Structure formats: structure tokens, C-alpha cells
Amino acid sequence: MSTHSWIHPSLEIRESKIHGKGVFATTCIKASERLAIFGGDIMLIDEINNLAESMQDYPMQIEERFVLGSREERTSEDTDYFNHSCAPNAGFKGQIFLVAMRDIEKNEEITFDYSMVLSQSVGSDIVFTMECQCGSESCRKMISEEDWKKPELQKKYRGFFSEYISEKIEETNRTDFSKLCEGDKDPTLNKTINTLIEATEDWIVYLDADLSVEWAQNDNIAETESFGAIANMVAYYESLSSELLAKRHIEPFHRLLGESLARSYENHTERANEILTRAKEYMDARSKERAKMWYLCSSASVVTCVSIVILLVKCFYAHFYLWAGPAWTDIIIGSLFGSIGAFISIISRSSEISVNAAAGLKIHIIDGLARVFVAMLGAFLVAVCLKANLVLSMPNGLDSPRLYLIAFCIVAGASERIVPDLIQKVGGTIDAKDKVVRESK
Question: Cα separation of 156 and 297, whole Å?
Fold first, then answer.
């Protein structure tokens, strides 16, 4: 009969296959339901040696120097009979509350892993070891006061260690981030710190060797809802940066993202959002510059090639003249000069050109090439009309008709209105001539 402890009414003491007596469920119990509250006499660990031999196995450690148990054999607690298992169905909430880790079936023995409450004592020569007889597939065979330090058990029982052991785990795993410098390795993420944004004892924000934004924190730091939202935006913008930004722009952009995270850790949400806005503006501006560069370079490459062709025509003009004839030679030369007009237009209107790096390099190259080739086709149409005296005609008495044609083709290549207007006029002229012919018949 318990005098200082409490166990669930659906639990009872029976003979156990694990060891001696154990605690069993008489009905089904739901996960998270409270199973027991431990109580008893608070004793120094060394006092265990003064207890009756039959009582020395029952005290439960509650601190590095203290245990909770019964000093007299006749006042043993029901909670003294919970056996150890390496595959337990119960764990701790707080220091003395035992809860179900999962749903527990009727007649199932209630067990917890002693690593949840047991650690090395201070100021005592008592060292705890125990041969395990739980029989589970994950049985460790030997139980010791050092088991709580095992990473696999810390992960397995996270949230179910006693408060005392949880504090020891937190202190052991705690990293003083303020001591880390650029070039050091972050022990929590195993990443090299390339650019340190900011670090305190409990958290750190930095760029790693790949210039990715990294952050780490101790378990005592609770992430706020606003931090989660900002961290999500940082991850989103970072995923876009490799596609939208040139390599030289990635580091300053990621530094801004890191600064936003650092301000969020300090709970300066408004400031964090302001920096995020600046980061987005920076990315938009730099990505637009990059897309324009793709567009301009593709256009310039075509114009360069065309200029080389023009020089070749000039060098071998006599042969070209004999092959194509005088009219077609002028038309072809004029068409080639239309590309120069297109490039002049692109340069002069570069601030108005709508580009987006997200569309990719290939689209901007195709767009730039298409703009130049369309201009050359327009110049070709203008040259044909001039030579055929169709709508347009060469003024009489020109010293250099070819230069007039070239100038007109350059203007046609630069203008987006001349060619459509010309096509419309040519169509109107042809319709008018057809009408005259029909009326004459």
C-alpha cells in the first residue's frame, strides 16, 4: 500500500517475468495518460547503503546527490515495483510523473528505461550497473548510469526523460556559439563557417563554405512563430538565388538573408522583415541586370558576326557583285546593316526592355537573336521596296545611292513602326493597281 506515491487505479502489482514483482495494466490505457506519481523519503545517495537490503534496489534518483525512496521496509511504495525495459511503454513528464508513451494493452507490464532517471552521482562512491533481463529485441544487456549520454537513447526518449536528466542532456549538448570564429566548424551541423553573420552563446547565423545560409541554436531557444515565417522566406529566396543571381552577387544577397535571421532571433521582427524586403529588392535588381546582359550579349554576338560578313563582302565586293548582281548586292548589304539598327535600338531602349532572369538564359538568347533577325528581315523589305520603287523610291541626283539605302535600312532595323507601315502601304498600292487594271478591262 502506497503512503507517499500514487498509481493509476487500473494498475496492480503482480509477479513479473522480468524481475521479481512488476506493475501491470488491468485495462487498456491510452497514450499520454498519467500512470503514477512518485513520492517517498528524500535521501542522500549514500544513505542507500543504510537501508534494509531488501529496500536498496528501489530508490529513484532525482538529482546528482539525492534519491527518492522508502527508509523503512514496511513503507515500500507501489511505484517501487516498476521494472526496467530497453523497449519501455512509459516515460517521465517532469521529475516524478510517469506517463504512457503509447497505448498500453490490458495485462501488459508497465516499464520504463532506467536511463530516463539514472546518472552518475556526485559525492558518492556508489556506481550503478545492472544486468538487463527485459528480453526485448533492443536489449542493451547491461544497464549503467552512463546510458543517458547515448545519442540514440536521447533521440528515442526525447520528451520522456525526467526533468533532472533532461537538464543534464541539454547542458551536455549545449554549444557556446559565441566562441566560434570564421574558419571553425559548427559542431551541431558539421559545417565550416565561411562568413560569420552573428553569434551568441545560444545561437549562430553564418554562411558555410558553399555560401549557403546556415543557422543553429541550443534546445533552450524557443522558435517564435515569426521566426518560422522568416526562416521559410529565407529558404525560399535562397533557393531562387542560384538561378537568378550571378556568383558575385550571391554572397552579399545571402548576407542580407542571414542578417534577417539574426534580427529574428533577437525578436526584432519588424527589422527582420525590412531586411528581407531589401534582400528581395537587391535580388530583383541584380537578376534584371543579369537578364539584360544575356539579352544584350546575344544581340551583340549576332551584330558582331554580321559586321564580319559585311567586311568580307567589302573585301570580296567584285566577286560578290558579279555573283549577285548590282540590285541584289545592295539589297543584301542593306539587310545586313539592319542588324546594326536593331542593336542601336536595343541599346537606346535598354531601360525599357522587360526581362526576367527566371525565364532562363536560353529564352533571353533566343529573344535577342530574334530581335536582330526580325530587324534584318525588315531592312531587307525596305531595300527591296527602294530598289523596286515600290512605295519608296530613291531621290534623283544622289551622290551615293547605296549609302542612302544603307541609312534607310539602319533606320528600318531600329524602328518598330517603319516595317509594319511599309507593309500596309505596299498592300494598299497593290490593291490600287489591281483596281485600275480591273476598271481598264
Answer: 58
Q: Is the domain of 394 the same as that of 343?
A: yes
Structural domain total, the chain: 3
302 and 254 belong to one structural domain: no
Query: Of 18, 17, 137, which is closest to residue 84 (Cα–Cα)?
Result: 18
Instruction: Label the pairing between strands 109-112 and 83-84.
Output: parallel
Torsion sign over Cα 229, 231, 232, 234: positive
What pLDDT tens digit does each residue of the chain (441 aa) get?
556 889 999 999 999 999 989 999 999 999 999 999 998 888 888 888 788 776 777 788 888 888 887 777 766 678 889 999 999 999 999 999 999 999 999 999 999 999 999 888 876 777 888 899 998 999 999 999 999 999 899 999 999 999 999 988 888 888 889 999 999 999 888 999 999 999 998 899 999 999 999 999 887 777 777 888 999 999 999 998 888 888 899 999 999 999 999 999 988 999 999 999 999 999 988 888 888 888 888 888 888 888 888 888 888 878 777 887 888 888 888 888 888 888 888 887 777 777 777 677 788 788 888 888 888 888 888 888 877 776 666 666 666 777 888 888 888 888 766 656 555 655 555 555 555 545 555
